[in-house]
Amino acid sequence: MKNEALFARQICRVLDHGTRDIDPSIAERLRAGRERALQHRAVAVESLEIVGAGGTAAWGGGHDSRSHPIRTLFAILALLLGVSFAYYWNGFDQASENEEIDSALLADDLPPNAYLDQGFQAWLEKRSSAGE
Amino acid sequence: MASRSELSDFLASVERRAFKQALFAVRDEDAALDIVQDSMMRLAEKYAGHPTDELPLLFQRILQNAIRDYYRRSRTRMARFVQLSSFESADDDTGDPLEAIEIDEELSPFATPHAALLQAETLELVEEALQNLPARQREAFLLRYWEGLDIAETAAAMNCSEGSVKTHCSRATHTLATALAAKGIRP
Q1: Can you give the pLDDT at residue A32?
Q2: Is the separation of the CB atoms in B140 and B168 below 8 Å?
Q3: Nearest-CA neighbor of B119 among B149, B99, B138, B133?
């Protein structure tokens, strides 16, 4: 095992020598590739910072990672509150719509029972088709 | 998070070895350069937020996956082609070629044309022997010994067990020693 490691080290020394004498054109292409990769890093880091800044601003700043569960809890509570409010508002809207229909029916010259009479419905249809 | 200069230094320190690793595996300079470039891009893009000490293992995982992807894409692997006649035997020389490399590192001003030739030949033979290793043995050997990853890290980079890493490394070293001994190079 010891001899194996020693031999491997000798081989690696030879290989290191080979990397130093690498063709200049290849060294240049590797350098160019590295530069391109670093430009990609800049874009990736910028995106991370934007996401980070957005999260921080939404919760009023602070960088303590321990507050993360509390933030999650607040987010869930806010979501539940939002859903409840939407449900309540929707119900309120529906009630006011029904109220308007009731008022219109009651204020009409026709009694509400007339709309339930099938003969009256047939008479209305006949009259509207005759009018056309 | 690794800063731009830390990432730059890291990539500069590994890019040549990464190129050689890819070249040993795919035997095509352009393809090897593409693999290294893609690996560097992926590291910079996806792992920019990781600490510097995680970069070596992450980069090796990306590089090894990129090499394997190349194999999958190309489907047909290049046939092994060894021009034995192009190598002169080192038997005529009394010195140890592996030692000659070492001497040159320390005393390069005293290098002779003969030593330089011997080094070039030794390097070629070693690289040739590495290229001829089975892919997994070469991968294990280079990650463990050239990249300096420990057994657990090598196993993680290769997506195999630690026992397999030990077996691959042992077989690779034995095969290399035999192949190089046949060319007059002994440890």
Answers
A1: 94
A2: yes
A3: B99
For residues B96 and A73, give the distance between their C-alpha atoms in angstroms, rounded to a whole number. Answer: 70
Query: What is the ipTM, given to two decimal places?
Result: 0.73
| pTM (predicted TM-score) | 0.60
Q: Which of B7, B119, B176 sits opposite A38 (nearest CB)?
A: B7
Q: Is A113 helix (H, G, I), strand (E, B) or coil?
A: helix
Shortest alpha-carbon distance between residue B149 and chain A (Å):
13
Between chains, do B177 and A7 touch, taking CB under 8 Å as contact?
Answer: yes
Which residue does chain A place closest to B5, by CA atoms? A38
Contact present, A17 and B104 (Cβ < 8 Å): yes
From CA A38, how far away is CA B119, in angstroms rounded?
A: 35
Query: Going from the N-terminus, what domains does chain B have, and what CATH number goes with each?
Result: 4-74 (no CATH), 93-181 (1.10.10.10)
Residues of chain B positioned with their CB less than 8 A from the CB of A34: 8, 11-12, 15, 40
Q: From the first residue on, what is the mean pLDDT of each consecutive set of 10 residues in chain A (132 residues)? A: 83 90 92 91 67 53 56 87 87 83 80 78 81 62
Domain map (residue ranges) of chain A = 1-63, 78-132
User: CA nearest A44 in B: which residue?
Assistant: B45
Q: pLDDT of B118-145, one tens digit each?
A: 778 888 899 999 999 999 999 999 999 9
CB–CB contact A27 B4 (8 Å):
no
